Amino acid sequence: MTKKNAFYAQSGGVTAVINATACGVIETARQHKDKIGKVYAGRNGIIGALTEDLIDTSRESARTIAALRHTPSGAFGSCRYKLKGLEENRREYERLIAVFEAHNIGYFFYNGGGDSADTCLKVSQLSERLGYPIQAIHVPKTVDNDLPITDNCPGFGSVAKYIAISTLEASYDVASMSKTSTKVFVLEVMGRHAGWIAAAGGMASTEQDELPIVILFPEVAFQKKRFLDKVKAMVKEHGYCSVVVSEGVRGRDGKFLADQGLRDAFGHAQLGGVAPVVANIIKQGLGYKYHWGVADYLQRAARHIASKTDVEQAYAMGKAAVQFALQGHNSVMPTIVRASNKPYRWKVGMAPLKKVANVEKMMPKSFISRDGFGITKKCRDYLAPLIRGEDYPPYRDGLPRYVRLKNVAVKKKLNTSFKVK
Amino acid sequence: MTKKNAFYAQSGGVTAVINATACGVIETARQHKDKIGKVYAGRNGIIGALTEDLIDTSRESARTIAALRHTPSGAFGSCRYKLKGLEENRREYERLIAVFEAHNIGYFFYNGGGDSADTCLKVSQLSERLGYPIQAIHVPKTVDNDLPITDNCPGFGSVAKYIAISTLEASYDVASMSKTSTKVFVLEVMGRHAGWIAAAGGMASTEQDELPIVILFPEVAFQKKRFLDKVKAMVKEHGYCSVVVSEGVRGRDGKFLADQGLRDAFGHAQLGGVAPVVANIIKQGLGYKYHWGVADYLQRAARHIASKTDVEQAYAMGKAAVQFALQGHNSVMPTIVRASNKPYRWKVGMAPLKKVANVEKMMPKSFISRDGFGITKKCRDYLAPLIRGEDYPPYRDGLPRYVRLKNVAVKKKLNTSFKVK
């Protein structure tokens, strides 16, 4: 095996643990300096490769790279950019080959979700279709938990933990206030297509500490009367309740509930979230005082309360990706294989990229309770190990000590520029 | 001193650490069983006293009471209810005396903010005005940090820490996304009258790790052009920025920015938050892609990342309140007195209630930077020790082990009921 350099990049929405994967990739590559030269990171994902904007990770100390494990967000910058097909945009592929060739890159690690898997698959075909020898390994990451084959996706467990804890804490709060003031708290969470994250809100209620939680899943068409009846029953029994609503909830007409055609005083369209919409429905239908929150980026950036399971798996995926490359694999993705629930045991598996790209894993129907507002035991058994364990970052003066890299650019070797469209 | 029972209640919006104060009150009272009989908690604040709905805290084990220290929200229920003046509503005061007399209550501990201090002051006057001997001690609590005399208020430090960390984490997130996607993240925080909590967002940026953060304070009238210029300059320099906006921000016309006269498709008024309003102003004025979040209850319930300083002070205030009572004081409030900044040293002081009730402490002008969008060194020096230290709750299966009390009711002794208006 001739010694080649590696390319690593982060793609799509970032997470609390995608840098833990970067840490796994870089630390493992550094242990194999006989086979892997340098790890070049793409500045802002694949765009860094296209524009020859590479970061020399060898300029970062071992200590700095280790600190990536407890730093949220994408340390090298991410992008939302999907390569087109070879037939549609051959110049992109030719450009990638030119950049890879100029920098002696033989390994391509792409860290992202479904769209990124598609980009990675296309790069993996450079060898057979354009004759440039490259091994492309996709490294799974997505808070949406919607990649197929893998039991779960790094990034999801930490969001799930954050939402479960936030729902627990807010429920305690509204319970205290409910006698004379707020009776319902509405929390909007991510998940445009699948209810994985909303389901995590249900974990706040346990056998030891039962809480009234109503979940609105994108998988279940919103029916106003049924919803109001449910909230009313909860408030009647418990004095209060929490509603966890997925941003992707739709009415029976298929339209997003968030899309209420809001206009300001001047008639301008306003984009609101779904939480205030649901809160208003409760106010108008039942007259209860409410509060609402929108977690947005806070949920996926909350490294301060990341799941230990998630951090370990994120690191393991990065490590496995490099090992797969060293074993000569191309066009594959490491996966998490659940071996048992109690005790939770998992191992690393391998999936062919062509079975991953553009396939979206939905939440099983059996995870949603019969009335459509809660989660089943099956769902709990699935989620429980993913939110388990804490992995606190170090602190200084009350704040987590997250690391920022120097991100030193690699000297360009091509004298051509490339415009990303 | 004859042995009397004590009444303790929680009032107003709850916090991550008000139960730590309850823990301080109950544990300290238990150490003085020769002088204080039982601690009866009011179910839902003063309403519990008026309706003779008392909770016997002696039915809770030492271990359960100790767990209050790490449990957010109000364990006995809170209320938003302000006693009227003696002249206006004499029957309420007579009822209180009847309940106190029936249960041999000689100590009254009321745990709340400015409105609650007023209620406590009125109760403290029962002795001289209606001849019922009682010692009323107010115990400070409010996330708004707006009580006078005390250097800071228990509850605020933990919200400040949560907002500082959330702003830090979200800033890292948007920085990663900014190349091809989101350039501005807007976070709405509490604070209708004063910008204390919004100021905490500024703590996310430090000397070691400077971040582009724009703060919108309720103390500074919102000017669209100046704001857009500031955001534009930040994005130009850093590629992204975070905006921390207080819910109480007003325009130069004095109207809340959140109040934009939103109407849904049917013409119904809709209550939105200020975050989406600010996000839309950015979108329309600068065209940047944005994300926005509303922390709402999450910020004040986030015991999982409470400030250690805050937890310690919350406990100390409860302890001091009982000690003041044992020393024979009436109509006072324990305070936090800052002795020095570096190293941070503080001690317990005492304030007369008549100087606390109905006095709102605003944020000093010297805490806001000259351009109105940031915090000064003076503000940083003030906030720094308040967010310092972590005080993690214990966990089970990935969730904090918060405690719920049995809250056993004390047998009623009066055969009259009382309707709270």
Give an overview of the whole structure.
The structure is a homodimer of 421-residue chains. Chain A is of the alpha/beta class. The first copy, chain A, has two domains: 4-142 and 306-358 and 391-400, Rossmann fold (3-Layer(aba) Sandwich); 156-301, Phosphofructokinase domain (Rossmann fold, 3-Layer(aba) Sandwich), CATH 3.40.50.460. Chain A is 33% helix and 17% strand. Chain A has helices at 18-30, 46-50, 62-67, 90-102, 114-124, 126-130, 156-177, 196-201, 224-238, 274-286, 297-301, 308-326, 377-383, and strands at 4-10, 36-42, 54-56, 105-112, 135-140, 184-189, 213-216, 241-246, 290-294, 332-340, 345-352, 395-396, 399-400. In chain A, the strands form four sheets. Chain A has a five-stranded mixed β-sheet, sandwiched between helices. In chain A, strands 7-8-6-9 form a four-stranded parallel β-sheet. In chain A, strand 7 (213-216), helix 9 and strand 8 form a beta-alpha-beta unit. In chain A, helix 1 runs parallel beside helix 12 (308-326) and helix 9 crosses helix 10 (274-286). The longest helix of chain A is centred in the middle third of the chain and has 22 residues, at 156-177. The radius of gyration of chain A is 23 Å and the shape is elongated. The two termini of chain A are 36 Å apart. The mean pLDDT of chain A is 95. At the A-B interface, helix 7, helix 10, strand 9, helix 11 and strand 13 of A face helix 7, helix 10, strand 9, helix 11 and strand 13 of B.
